[in-house]
From TrEMBL:
Belongs to the peptidase S1 family. CLIP subfamily. It is an enzyme of class 3 (hydrolase). The keyword Cell membrane does not apply. Residues 426-670 form the Peptidase S1 domain. InterPro entries: EGF, Kringle, Kringle_CS, Serine_Proteases_S1, Trypsin_dom, TRYPSIN_HIS, TRYPSIN_SER. Its main location: secreted. It holds the Pfam family Trypsin. This is t-plasminogen activator. Its EC number is 3.4.21.68. It comes from Solea senegalensis. Residues 215-297, 304-386 form the Kringle domain. Keywords: Disulfide bond, EGF-like domain, Hydrolase, Kringle, Plasminogen activation, Protease, Secreted, Serine protease, Signal. The keyword Transmembrane helix does not apply.
Length: 674
């Protein structure tokens, strides 16, 4: 309902203040009751016309002039509008004044409602929008996307502003790296990074992390993953993903939520190592927390001791003999290890989203992964032997094969040799997969205007936390916090479960870099981490080997280049997919200015090119690798620097000679430890 009032606010205040005055102001001539009424009529008409004239909003509002009175009447009524309202007024005047006050109050309420409505339309209250999945009852927030099963097919769903789920069928493929616990089958959407798990019997949840058969807690219940959802007072637990829990310390949005058992459910958990599992509840219209009324499992006196080699141990010890704390078996850094929570027989081996000591490979005793001297390793746990053997031993599942792979330092190898892919060209040719060049990095820079990262250059992974690139890729105004390094991605813009993304804590361009000749065109980037290790070795992510300072390879040795650069010299955009090409090392006597349009060539540069003019680096490939096979490993001999055009016959590309900078690289790494 819209209300139009022709009196301005300051005049309305004047009326309210006049009503409070008890003493009427004297005038030169006292008016009769009838004249009072006539003057009030004249005053109201003038007030209405003047305000309409002052506040009219469109030509469609036609002004109706008030009836003029004779001059004598005007003279007689002069000063009437300056008089306060007298207590002895007519009933019409009093009714009109009270009506005006009522309408002003209604107008204020209407304006307040309109302000709140406008705030909602601007999006300040979007966080209240939520969707409830019609199949799983999972709570989803506005704009959240997810996958769900529809029979044997998979639907892609998203939560709309109206709180409704919108879904459609999408194609899926097997995940590069399984995201599912307890032997679940992982499927990944072809056109997005969303994944879905097909859980075995007895398990449910987004990642098959919920054990529907777990009915009691062991010890403090830190590893409890059952479905109990009632507190000790009988209150129902709040979903860990509920918007009402925003700002709480433990929610499904927490970075390590999956390791803590938190997710899109309302089951009791113990993420902070309390006395027993607990949950958030509503209490007197406020959010509180309460312990759950979970029963304790029957105590086993052999629970916290080891029988034989401890393969049946299912206790809760999580400290090694040296006192180091164990890593959770589902820590991201363990994804490529043989023994982790994503094994198909993880449940039988006692592995899951916890950090308890286990012996899945038949070692001397229970052990776990841990950090020692800033390196990922493993250690045996300090668990006492049982004094007496129980009459019944728990049934063991199939044992995993023993492995001696304890994070041995390796480089320059492709872990995935099963794929027999055809060769391709980095310039104007066919495409490839990141497993063919797992040391390839993409360096992006953040642009504030568009609020997103854009591809700047390539890079080479040479160590878990170190990446080499070209100095000309970075400007003086580029701050480290604006840079982003992506490893393990085949498609430049498309997310993948195999990718590893890092921020840059600091970077160094060579002190003697010449921006005109591109001499000393090399830069070193340190990836950001707070756990002592960054990139984890996998078929998609693996470092290239640095050469010895005195290594010299024969002329015309075939080498490889790779990157996300342009397919053609004047292409509008960078390649959508990583590409690789083959070039040969040119003799030093042929790497001269004469073949490069007169540009300077220094001893810190080397030349390599395809004599056919087919494969070559191009814009956007700068900073990427030139790797050559030496002693059966791929060795980084050059960093892509510059060239005279792209793919021109008899014109090589120019690369930074890495052997000249081995000492510089090692000094930087030693002076800035991870």
């Amino acid at each position: 309902m819209h209300v139009i009032i022709f009196a301005s606010p300051h005049q309305a205040v004047g009326v309210r203040s006049n009503l409070k005055q008890m003493e009427p102001k004297r005038t030169n001539a006292k008016l009769t009751t009838h004249e009072n009424y006539k003057c009030s009529q004249l005053f109201n008409v003038r007030l209405t016309n003047s305000k309409r004239h002052k506040h009219k909003s469109s030509n469609s509002e036609r002004l109706i002039p008030g009836k003029r009175t004779e001059p004598q009447r005007n003279q007689r009524c002069r000063g009437f509008h300056n008089r306060p309202l007298e207590l002895k007024t007519t009933s019409e005047d009093m009714t009109r004044s009270l009506g005006l006050l009522f309408l002003l109050s209604a107008l204020c309420c209407c304006l307040a409602d309109n302000v709140e409505l406008l705030r909602s339309k601007r999006g300040t209250r979007f966080y209240r929008v939520r969707c409830v999945d019609s199949q799983t009852s999972a709570v989803r927030s506005f704009r959240e996307t997810w996958l769900r099963w529809r029979g044997q097919r998979v639907e892609y769903c998203h939560c709309t502003l109206g709180g409704r789920e919108r879904c459609h069928i999408v194609p899926v493929t097997n995940c590069y790296v399984s995201q599912c616990y307890n032997g679940g089958t992982c499927k990944e959407a072809v056109y997005s990074s969303d994944y879905i798990c097909q859980c075995p019997a007895g398990f449910s949840g987004t990642r098959c992390e919920i054990n529907t058969n777990e009915k009691c807690v062991v010890g403090q219940g830190k590893g409890y993953r059952g479905t109990w959802s009632i507190s000790h007072t009988g209150a129902e637990c709040i979903n860990w993903n509920a918007t009402s829990l925003r700002g709480k310390r433990f929610t499904a949005k927490k970075v390590d939520a999956s390791s803590l058992g938190l997710g899109n459910h309302n089951f009791c958990r113990n993420p902070d190592n309390d006395n027993t599992p607990w949950c958030y509840v509503y209490k007197n219209n406020l959010i509180a927390w309460e312990f759950c009324s979970l029963p304790k499992c029957k105590e086993d006196k052999y629970q916290e001791c080891v029988l034989a080699s401890g393969q049946s141990y299912r206790g809760t010890k999580s400290v090694t003999k040296s006192g180091s704390h164990c890593l959770p078996w589902d820590a991201p850094i363990l994804k490529r290890k043989l023994n982790n929570a994503w094994r198909s027989d993880a449940l039988e081996q006692g592995l899951g989203s916890h950090s308890f000591c286990r012996n899945p490979d038949g070692d001397e005793g229970p052990w776990c992964h841990t950090y020692k001297n800033m390196q990922l390793t493993w250690e045996l746990c300090d668990i006492p032997q049982c004094l007496k053997h129980p009459s019944v031993l728990s049934t063991l599942g199939p044992r995993a094969p023993t492995t001696n792979n304890n994070n041995r330092a390796t480089c320059g190898r492709r872990l995935d040799n099963s794929l027999n892919r055809p060769s391709f060209r980095i310039f104007g040719g066919r495409q490839s997969d990141i497993t063919d060049q797992p040391w390839q990095a993409a360096i992006n820079v953040y642009q504030a205007r568009s609020r997103q990262h854009f591809h700047r250059c390539g890079g080479v992974l040479i160590n878990s936390c170190w990446v080499l690139s070209a100095a000309h890729c970075f400007e003086e105004s580029d701050k480290a916090e604006k840079l982003e390094v992506i490893l393990g991605r085949t498609f430049r813009k498309q997310n993948s479960s195999s990718e590893q993304i890092f921020k840059v804590s600091k970077y160094w361009s060579h002190e003697n870099f010449d921006s005109e000749s591109f001499d000393n065109d090399i830069a070193l980037l340190k990836l950001e981490t707070d756990i002592g290790i960054c990139a984890v070795n996998s078929p998609e992510v693996f470092p290239a080997c640095l050469p010895e300072p005195d290594l010299v390879l024969p002329s015309w040795t075939e080498c490889e280049i790779s990157g996300y650069g342009r397919d053609r010299e004047f292409a509008a955009e960078y390649s959508e997919r990583v590409k690789r090409g083959y070039v040969r090392l040119w003799p030093n006597e042929r790497c001269v200015p004469d073949v490069l349009s007169g540009r300077t060539v220094t001893p810190n540069m080397l030349c390599a090119g395809d004599t056919r003019g087919l494969d070559d680096a191009c814009k956007g490939d700068s900073g990427g690798p030139l790797v050559c096979r030496h002693n059966d490993i791929m060795t980084l001999m050059g960093v892509i620097s510059w060239g005279d055009g792209c793919g021109q016959r008899d014109k090589p590309g120019v690369y930074t000679r890495v052997t000249n900078y081995i000492n510089w690289i090692k000094e930087k790494m030693k002076a800035n430890p991870v």
